[in-house]
Amino acid sequence: MALLSEIQPAIAVALNSLGGKMTKGVEDLYYLYASSHINTAVDAFILLRREHRIDGARLLVRPALETMLRLQAVRAKTYLLYRVLLREALEADKWFGSVARRHGVDYTRVCDRDEWQAFKNRCVAQFGADKLEDSPLDSYGAAAAIGVEAYYDSHYRGYCQYTHGALEAVSGSLDELTDPEDTRVMLHSAMVALDALVDVGADCPAIASFRKRFNEVITQKPDKLFRRKPTNETASSEAPPADGQT
After folding, report:
1. Which residues have C-beta within 8 Å of that of residue 39, sequence separation ≥ 6?
2. What residue numbers bound the domain in which 66 lies?
3. Over residues 190-213, mean pLDDT
4. pTM of the model as a whole
5. Does residue 110 lie in a domain region?
6. Pick the residue with more confidence: 12 or 222?
7. Considering 51, 72, 208, 209, which has the largest number of Cβ atoms within 10 A of its Cβ?
8. Hey, which residues does 245 pair with through a beta bridge?
9. Phi, psi of 227 (to 5 degrees)
10. DSSP element (H, E) containing 84
11. Rounded to whole angstroms, how far apart are CA atoms 109 and 115?
12. In a domain, 89, yes or no
């Protein structure tokens, strides 16, 4: 948590430092917005953990993790950005298309719009037509692209249980497994975001130090997380029970 609390402000500064700079590659804006999303999740996670709201903070882990997997995949194989955004376009069609039909409004599929064709043309020019596949890239595909299928099966699937409100998760049965991993996943996500921003020219004088400390921390066995037990005061109706780390 100490390192995470230092990296998050560095991400914010790095994001601000990119203001007014011209993008070079088609992927630059994706790096910017994906990193910003991770930063938002990490910032809220830190705030909740400082208030000992472990269970509330945990609900932010999967959004950061999912974004981190795709961001890592695009950084490793930039041409995968096309497939990432293709999936988003198809999902948008499901959402907005159904709303449009319900209201009797004309709707043009994302991939049939001029903006999409312009984006595809940029991808062809930058990556080559042979690199583009008209196949949407989901989170598992992103994990497979960077060789972390096992991480997907363990961590992504685990945090999906909380996102989808699975009984085993919401009853606390999985806490022993996830408690030590929450901060590690957020730290990993934050570091990937910061690295991506530095790659596109963001300012971060301490990046070498952060990378060194991250590599040291992430390979260590995680500390056990001790939850606070509710007292008579915190169990009152005016002050609901709080959970946290001692």
Report:
1. 8, 11, 12, 15, 190, 193
2. 2-77+137-218
3. 97
4. 0.90
5. no
6. 12
7. 72
8. 227
9. -90, 140
10. helix 81-103
11. 11
12. no
Torsion of CA 191, 193, 199, 205, to 10 degrees: -50
Phi-psi sector, 165: left (phi>0), alpha (psi -120 to 50), beta = left
pLDDT number for residue 22 = 62
Element (H, E) at 31: helix 28-50
Residues in the chain: 246
pLDDT at 111: 97
Q: What are phi and psi of 26, to 5 degrees?
A: -65, -20
Q: Which two tokens stand for residue 9?
A: 């402000």
What contacts 24+ positions apart, CB below 8 Å, involve 232-241?
A: none
Q: Which residues pair with 227 in a beta bridge?
A: 245
Report yes or no on 120 lying in a domain. Answer: no
How many domains does the chain divide into? 1
What would the pLDDT profile of 68-108 be if each residue is shown by its tens digit?
A: 999 999 999 999 999 999 999 999 999 999 999 999 999 99
